[in-house]
Amino acid sequence: MLRLNDVKKSFTEPDGTRLPVLDIPSFQVAAAEQMVLVGRSGCGKTTLLHVIAGISKADSGKVEVNGCDLAKLPEAGRDRFRADNIGYVFQTFNLLAGFSALENVLLGMSFARGKASAERAAALLHRVGLSHRLTHKPAMLSVGEQQRVAVARALANRPKLLLADEPTANVDARNQQQIVDLIRETCVEEQVALVLVTHTAEVAEQFERVEHLDEFNQAVASV
Amino acid sequence: MSLWKIAWRSMQQRALASWLTGLSMALGVALVVSVLVIHSVISGTFSRTAQGYDLIVGAKGGELQLVLNTVFHLSKPINNIPYSYYKEFTEDEHHRGKYAPYVKLAIPYCLGDNYEGYRVVGTTPRMFDEFEYARDRKYEFAEGRNFKHENFFEGVIGSLVAHQTGLKVGDEFNPTHGVTDDEIGHKHDAFTVVGILAATGTPNDRALFVNIEGFYLLEKHAKDPPAKSVAKKEHQHDEHDHEHDEPDHEEHDLATNGHHERDDEPGHDEPVHDEPGHDEHSRAGRDEHAHDEPGHEEHDLATNGHDEHDDEPGHEEHSHAGHDGHAHDAHDHGHAHGPRKPLPENQREVTAILLLTRQFENPIKSMALSRDINDEPLVMAVKPSVAIYTLFDSIVGTLELLLLALALVVIVVAAIGVMVSIYNSMNDRRRDIAIIRSLGARRTTVMVVILLESILLSLGGGAAGVLLGHLIPRALSPWIVNQTGVAIGLFQFHWTVLEFELGLRQVTLTFPTEPVLIPGLIFLATVTGLLPAMTAYRTDVAKALSMSP
Fold first, then answer.
1. Which residue of A has its CA nearest to B3?
2. Does chain A have fewer CB atoms within 10 Å around its N or its C terminus?
3. Portion 32-51 of A in contact with B at CB < 8 A
4. Closest by Cα among B95, B394, B77, B45 to B260
């Protein structure tokens, strides 16, 4: 499902020197597999998710998602591929303030190949327990509710892979478990592979597979 | 979700800024549209109004001023010309004017008085019986009837005058000397309103028309008669009299004498009242407005009699008695009223003569007519349509172009306002753009969203502007009507006429100008939206996503 080979990514420092951020000889996730990625701050977790999602481009190596090498696609192609195949849940939810809950989910469908379906969006919101909040704007929702909208939006296009970047970092303890449960359950229902980044041990220990990025990212090891 | 909706939502999110930039665009477009509307209405009305007459004859001087005075009731008053000129365009059993064969209709116009600021015109009933104010459009009366030649102190009023002054059929009004209501003019004898003209949409809606015979009898309206009878009249100066005392008296006298055999009987000026019945009847006619009573007939007959003989002496006393006995304010000045018989022609003047020429029957001569008239020492003939065209071409056209240019600058400024507003918002929206990108939108997509927002703001503002541009002239209409007599409808469109050659064929395209604004606005919005759109295009998604919300 997800296969990374010799992926290298570096940033240019203000003084012009290159700072290696990612150097991953191999990393794989099977279809519908759920795994957690942990690591200290600055070890490249978010950058790795960006590279997998095609938001950033790897300097070299192979980033194969669902049989397609993102490293070979131009930007517009990666954008389209992301819309069709990858869901993304952010730490800060990243809902658009001007759009209602339903519209935020519909927005997630707007750039994919399939036609945006209000029924599908409403059904997803119902699934995450927000059928009474369809027309509410994000500001009128609690943080827990906002993250649930974000989960619904990430699943809107029936992606093959869901990337969740510290989805529980901004919610309280009670909501934290609900969100994790929701993400895991829906991923099972929709047959979506899940890569979840977290700092929280309580979350990480619920997963069978936990990878430490500092350990397999050689860019970190070399620093 | 369509990109339009995304753009719309983003506008809603910054509602205040969007409203304000939309409003500035609306004002710019409204300015352009109202300039177009007012121009089309005014030029249309001006040229249509000026079509009513073929030629206007008046004292030599400003051609435009003559047209403005006679057709539009505007501008400063002009000099008068001797009545003899008018006679040259008319014929009756006693006299055949030298231009009469070339003229279908000649209407005398006497100007110089006003009523509450509206100009009073002394003319003949034929003005409304036989003239058309535009092609194929005869005057009609909303109320009452036309004034009658034999009832000297009758008049009709334009629809706007009726509306503004509240004068009704049967009311009396006292014209004041001078063309404007400066409140120092002398109040004249009263005329009775016998008819209210139906609205014509021409300047005649804001004028009053009185029987020229009555007009002549008003104080100071008689010109000094030729030498011998000057004695009685003090020389009073006003616009009409003093400017025309000297020039070409000879010519004038000759002309006057030429067809004035009847006027020179003695006893002209001695008031010897000897018509007791007249007083009675005058009272009835003036105060009860019972114009159609049998008694009136009598008066008419009597007046006609005057017309024939011109020399019934001494009406002064009778009219005086008639007025004072009834204590009309206006009649209480104690001025001596002129004799109630027609003013002798040698004391008459006219301000202008409106002509309908026999164009089709004698085309060559009719073309020569205005040249012949211009050869006369005192007068000139003006084609009103040509004068108006010249006015529009030289002054109004340039002014309109200037106004349009200014209005376009306002639109450009508004467009820049749209750009600044969106551009300033880009900082706050970088994160939103990154989110949309993370959902799979391409760079070009977010760029288009920003352009659409710019277009929506410009077109929305533009649409409001078009509406406003029609509403503003409509709202100003009462004022414009008051100033020019031109009424403006809500849906008045400016038409552009394009003529060009396509191969061998001459092609004429006529289309309303306003829709041209739409592609213009879209183009402008695209150009000004490009700068913020490029910012959206260049947004670094990874970096923007890592910004704290």
1. A110
2. C
3. 46-47, 50
4. B95
Give the chain B residue nearest A104 (alpha carbons).
Answer: B1
Spatial distance between the Cα atoms of B290 and B277, rounded to a whole number of angstroms: 16
Q: Residue B68's CB: how many other CB atoms inside 10 A?
A: 20
Hey, of B428, B436, B438, which one would you mutate to test binding to chain A, going by the most A CBs within 10 A of its CB?
Answer: B438
All domains in chain A, ordered by first residue: 2-222 (3.40.50.300)
Q: Tell me how close the Cα of A88 comes to any Cα of chain B, in angstroms.
A: 8
Buried b (16+ CB within 10 A) or exposed e, B75-100: eebbbbbbbbbbbbbbbeeeeebebe
A90 touches B: beta carbon within 8 Å: yes
Closest chain A residue to B446, measured at CA? A111
Check: complex ipTM more than 0.95: no
Tokens of B475: 């709202």
pLDDT by residue (tens digit) across B229-249?
A: 444 444 444 444 444 444 444
* Alpha carbons within 13 A on the beta-carbon side of B98: 8
Contacts of B447 in chain A (CB under 8 A): none
Are residues B438 and A96, on separate chains, in Cβ contact within 8 Å? Answer: no
Q: Which residues in chain A have Cβ-Cβ distances shorter than 8 Å to B2?
A: 110
Residue with tokens 């009452």: B144
**Total H helices, total E strands in chain B:** 17, 17
Please report, as a single letter, which amino acid is at residue B327. Answer: A
Q: Is the pLDDT higher at B94 or at B249? A: B94
As beta bridge partners, residue B91 has: B96
Residue of B nearest to A105 (CA): B1
Q: At what angle do helices A75-85 and B443-484 cross, to 10 degrees?
A: 100
Question: Which residues are A23's β-sheet partners?
Answer: A8
Q: Do B439 and A108 touch (CB under 8 A)?
A: yes
| pLDDT tens per residue, range B487-518 | 666 666 677 776 777 777 777 777 777 778 88
Spatial CA neighbour of B492 closest among B159, B33, B26? B33
Interval B40-61 mean pLDDT = 75
Which pLDDT tens digit goes with each residue over A88-139? 999 888 999 889 999 999 998 989 888 888 999 999 999 999 999 999 999 9
Question: In whole angstroms, how far apart are CA A185 and each of A159, A196, A197?
Answer: 15, 13, 17
